[in-house]
Amino acid sequence: MEMQFEAFRSQLEESGAVRERIRAVISELDNVVRVMQASLLPVHHATTQQAAKEVLNKAKSYIPQLQKLYSQLAEIIRDRPGQYYRYHDHWRNQTHTVVFLLSFVHWLDTQLLLSHSEVETLLGVKPEEFSIDIEDYLIGLCNISSELPRYVVNRVTAGDYECPRQVSAFLSDLFSAFRILNLRNDLLRKRFDGLKYDLKKVEEVLYDVKIRGLLSNQAAPKPMES
Amino acid sequence: MEMQFEAFRSQLEESGAVRERIRAVISELDNVVRVMQASLLPVHHATTQQAAKEVLNKAKSYIPQLQKLYSQLAEIIRDRPGQYYRYHDHWRNQTHTVVFLLSFVHWLDTQLLLSHSEVETLLGVKPEEFSIDIEDYLIGLCNISSELPRYVVNRVTAGDYECPRQVSAFLSDLFSAFRILNLRNDLLRKRFDGLKYDLKKVEEVLYDVKIRGLLSNQAAPKPMES
Amino acid sequence: MEMQFEAFRSQLEESGAVRERIRAVISELDNVVRVMQASLLPVHHATTQQAAKEVLNKAKSYIPQLQKLYSQLAEIIRDRPGQYYRYHDHWRNQTHTVVFLLSFVHWLDTQLLLSHSEVETLLGVKPEEFSIDIEDYLIGLCNISSELPRYVVNRVTAGDYECPRQVSAFLSDLFSAFRILNLRNDLLRKRFDGLKYDLKKVEEVLYDVKIRGLLSNQAAPKPMES
Amino acid sequence: MEMQFEAFRSQLEESGAVRERIRAVISELDNVVRVMQASLLPVHHATTQQAAKEVLNKAKSYIPQLQKLYSQLAEIIRDRPGQYYRYHDHWRNQTHTVVFLLSFVHWLDTQLLLSHSEVETLLGVKPEEFSIDIEDYLIGLCNISSELPRYVVNRVTAGDYECPRQVSAFLSDLFSAFRILNLRNDLLRKRFDGLKYDLKKVEEVLYDVKIRGLLSNQAAPKPMES
Fold first, then answer.
1. What count of CB pairs under 8 Å joins A to B?
2. pLDDT band at C181, cuts 50/70/90?
3. Pair C225, C162: CB distance under 8 Å
4. Can you give the residue range of the structural domain that contains D6?
5. Substitution target from B80, B85, B130, B174 for chain C, most C beta carbons within 10 A
6. What keywords appear on the UniProt entry (chains A, B, C, D) (predicted)?
7. Which residue in chain A has the smallest CA separation from D130?
8. How far does D90 lie from chain A, in Å, by closest CA?
9. For A112-155, how does the pLDDT look when each residue is reduced to its tens digit (9 = 90+)?
10. Domain shared by A88 and A61, yes or no
C-alpha cells in the first residue's frame, strides 16, 4: 500500500507543481492585461484620428508581452500531451480579456472582426500545441459588444455622427452570427443575451442622431482611419 | 414490499421515458425556434417593403417544422390522457417563444393580433388533444411588446415615420386588453408590467417624431404591405 | 381583441377560483394533519402496550376527516378531467405528511409497510378519480424512516430490546426496495439519501443492545402487539 | 464573419454531440452502478460465510457490464486525443462509486487494498487510452472508509468480534498512506478528513468489544473466507 501511495505522492506533486508554474504565468499575464486595458481607455475620449492612433499603438505595444506569456503556457503544456483541458480553468478568464482587447483594438483599426485564427497568430501560439478554446474566443467577442455602446455615445459626443451606423451594422452582423450557434454553454448563452441589449442601445443612439437630422445620407459607412 | 417497488420502478421508468421523449422533441423545437428567430432578425433593418416581405416569408417557412414537432408532442400526450399538465413545464418556455414568433410575424404582415385559436391552427394542434395554455399564449404576447420598441426605433432610423403611430395604437389596445384580466399569476403579472414600459418607450418615439414635424397628418395608419 | 380577452378573463378567473377552492381545502387539511401528528407523538413514550394502542386509536380517529377533505379535492378535480397535475402542487406537501402518518400508524400496528393502494383505500379516494402520486407516496415513506431512529432509542430506553432488530430489518428492506428505483427526481433522491443514515443509526442502537448482552437469541422478531 | 461562425457551429455541435454520447453511456453506467451497489447491500446482514460469498459473487457478476461501458467511453475518447480532461467531469462521480464498489468487494474477499492498476485491469481499460484519474481512485478509496464503520457495527451485532480488529488495522494503514500525500485538492482533502473520523468510530467499536472481553487473544486477523 505504501509504495503505491509514494507513487501517487510524486504524481500529485508533479500536477501540483504544474499548477504552481501555470499560476505564476497567469499572475504575470493578469498584470499585463490590466495595464494594456488601462492603456486602451483613452480611446473613448480621443478627439483626433492621430490621438486615437497613438492610443492604439500604445495598446499594441503590449502584444509581445502577451506572446511571451502564452509561449510559456504553451511550453508547460507541450510536455504534457492531452492535458490542455486538465489545466484550462487556470487561463480561461484572462484569455477572455485578452481576446476582447485584441479584437477591440483590431475593430478600432479596421472595423472588422478579428478571426479566431488571427487571435492565435497575434498571440504566437501554434494551434497544435496550445490553441485558444473556441468558447473562450466567443466570450471574448461578447466583451467587445459590451464596450461598444459606451464607445458610440462618446464618439457622438465628440461629433462623430457616423460611428453609430458602423457599430450598429457590426453588432447586428455579430448578433446574427451568434444566432447561428446552438448555445448549450451556460456562460456563453448568458453573455450572448447581453449582446442583444448592447445592440439595442447602439440602435437608440443611431435613432437619436437620425431624428435630429445629424446623419449624412451616404450609404456606405467609412472605416475610421480612411 | 419488493414486488410493489418493482411496479413503482416500471412506473417511474415509464414517466422518465416520457420525459426523455419530450426532451428529445423540445431539443429539436429549440433548434427550429432559434433558426426561425435568427431568420426574423433582419426585419429590423429591412429598408424596402420587398426586403421585409422576403424576411417574413423566410420566417414563415419554418412553420411546417413547428407543426411537425407539436404534433409529436401531441402524440406523446394523446396516449396519456390527463397528463398534459404533468409534463407542461417541459414545453412552456419554447411555447412562449413560438407564440411570440408567430404573432410578431402576423403583426408585421397585418398589424393585427394573432388570436389564441389562430395560434393553435397555425401549429396544427387540436385543442381537445393538445391545447396551448392560455397563460403561455399571453406571455408570448408580452414578448412581442418587448420587441416593438426596438423595431420602432429602427423603422424611424430607416425613415418610416408612421410606424410609431401604428405600434403605439397596437400596444395601447393590447395594454387595455390585459387590464381586463385579473392577473394573479406572478410571471404573467411581471411581464405585463414590462408592457407598460414598452408602450411608454414607443410613445416617446412617437413624440420625438411629432415635435420634429416628421409625422404626416393622415389619420389612419396604413398596413406596411398595402 | 377585447372579446378574446374577455374570454381569457373568465378562464383565468375560473382557474383562479379552482385554486381558491383547493387552497381552502388544503388549509383545513393542514389543520387536521397537524392535530393528527400531535396525537401520535406520545407513542414515543408509551410504556405499555395498552397505552400505545390508545395513542394509535386516537390517531386513527382523524382518518374520517382526512377522507372528507380528500373527497372534496377529488370532487373539485372530477369536474376537470386531466387537470390533476395542473393543481398538484397545492396538495403535494400535505400528502407527504398524510402518507407518513398513515403508514407510521400502520407500521406501529403491524410492523408492515402500508402499500400505495392501501393508502388510497384509507383515504377513500378512487384512483381513477384522484390518485395519490407515486412519488408523493415514496416521499411519505422516507418520512417514516426519519422518525424511526428516535422511536427505537425511546423504545430501548423503555426496556424494549427487540425493537431495534425489528426496525433494522424493516428499514433494511425498505432501503433495498428504494435501491431498485432509478431515482431521477431530485427531492426523492435527497430524501432517500437520508434513509441510509437512519438505517445506520438504528443499526448502531441494535449494536449497543447486542454488545451489552441485552438481545435475546430468538431468531424471528415478534410484532409489537402479538 | 458568417463562414467563421458556421465553422464554430459545427465544432460546438461536434463537442455537444460528444457530450450527448458520453451522457448516454454514463446514464447506463449509472444504472449498472446502482444495481451493483444494491446487490452488495445484503453483505451487511449476511450471517454465514456462504451467504457473504454469494453476495460478493452477485456483485462481481456486474463487472463485465462495467467493462463494456468503460470501453465505450474509451472508444469515444480514443478518437479525440488529448480530450480526456475536457470531458472528465462527466464520468467523475460514477467512477468514484465504481472504484468504491470494486475495492470494497476486493477488501471483503481478501482484506487487501485494490491497487490503482488493478482497478484499471478490472475495468479493462488501457491506461494509455483511458486511464482512471488518480484523484478519482483516491476518492473512491475514501468511500470504502465511510462504509466500513457501518459494516463493523453490523458484523459485531451478528457476533463476529474479530472484524473490528481487521478493519481498524486496514483503515489505520490506509490513513497512514494518505498522510504521505500532500493534499492540495479540496474535495480529496475533505474526504480524507472523513477517513480519520471513520477510523475513530471503528476504534471505538474495537474498544467496546475488547473491554467486554469479547475479543479473542489470537494476534493475526484471519481473512473472512479462509
1. 39
2. confident
3. no
4. 1-132
5. B85
6. Cytoplasm, DNA-binding, Endonuclease, Hydrolase, Nuclease, Nucleus, RNA-binding
7. A82
8. 13
9. 999 999 999 999 999 988 999 999 999 999 999 989 999 999 99
10. yes
**Inter-chain residue contact B88 with C85, CB threshold 8 Å:** yes
Identify the contact set of chain A against chain B, taking CB-CB distances under 8 A: 172, 175-176, 179-180, 182, 200, 203-204, 206-207, 210-212
Q: Letter for the amino acid at D42?
A: P
Do residue C181 and residue B85 have CB atoms under 8 angstroms apart?
no
Q: What residues in A contact B31, CB-CB < 8 Å?
A: 182
The residue among A110, A132, A154 that closes a domain is: A132
Grid cell, residue A172, equals: 447586428
DSSP line for D121-174: HHHT--TTTSPPPHHHHHHHHHHHHHHHHHHHHHHHHTT--SHHHHHHHHHHHH
Contact: D34, C200; criterion CB under 8 Å:
no
Whether B105 and B127 share a structural domain: yes
Asked if C85 and B81 come within 8 Å (Cβ–Cβ), the reply is no
Report how far residue D190's alpha carbon sits from residue D196's, in angstroms, rounded to the nearest whole number.
Answer: 11
Which one of B29, B153, B155, B210 would you mutate to disrupt binding with A, by most A Cβ within 10 Å of its Cβ? B153
With CA atoms as reference, the chain B residue closest to C135 would be: B12
Same domain, C58 and C119: yes
pLDDT tens profile A44-53 = 988 888 999 9
Q: End of a domain among A132, A161, A182?
A: A132
pLDDT attached to residue D186: 77
pLDDT of res. C52 = 94
Cell of A127: 494551434
Chain-chain contact of D113 with A174 (C-beta, under 8 angstroms): no
Q: Is the pLDDT of residue D71 over 60?
A: yes
D27 to chain C: which residues are within 8 Å by CB?
none
Same domain, C39 and C114: yes
The alpha-carbon gap from A83 to the nearest alpha carbon of chain D, in Å, equals: 6
CATH number at residue A151: 1.20.58.200
Residue D141 has pLDDT above 80, yes or no: yes
Can you point out the beta strands (E) in B95-221? none
DSSP result, B10-79 = HHHHHHHHHHHHHHHHHHHHHHHHHHHHHHHGGGGG--SHHHHHHHHHHHHTTHHHHHHHHHHHHHHHHT
Q: List Cα–Cα distances, C131 to A26, C68, C114, in angstroms.
A: 60, 15, 16
Cα–Cα distance for residue pair B209/B213, rounded to 1 Å: 7
* Closest residue by Cα to residue D174 from D153, D149, D151, D144: D144
Q: Are B221 and B161 in a shared domain?
A: yes
Question: Structural domain tally of chain D?
Answer: 2
pLDDT band, very low/low/confident/very high, at A111 (cuts 50, 70, 90): very high
> What is the number of other CB atoms lying within 10 angstroms of the CB of residue C225?
12
User: Could A179 and B37 be called an inter-chain contact, meaning their C-beta atoms sit closer than 8 Å?
Assistant: yes
Enumerate the residues of chain C whose CB falls inside 8 A of the CB of residue B83: 82, 85
User: Best mutation site among C208, C210, C211, C215 for testing chain D: the one with the most D CBs within 10 Å?
Assistant: C211
For residues D93 and D45, membership in a common domain is answered with: yes
Q: Cell numbers of D199, please?
A: 477510523
C210 and C173 in a common domain = yes
Residues C116 and C155 in one domain: no
CA angle B1, B6, B10 (to 5 degrees): 150
CB A113 within 8 Å of CB A92: no
In B, minimum Cα distance to A212 occurs at: B212
CATH number of the domain at B90, please. 1.20.58.190
Q: pLDDT at position D212, please?
A: 87
C182 φ, ψ (degrees, to nearest 5): -100, 90
> Residue B154 and residue A204: Cβ atoms within 8 Å?
no
Chains A and C touch (3+ CB pairs under 8 A): no
Neighbours, chain A (3 or more CB pairs < 8 A): B, D
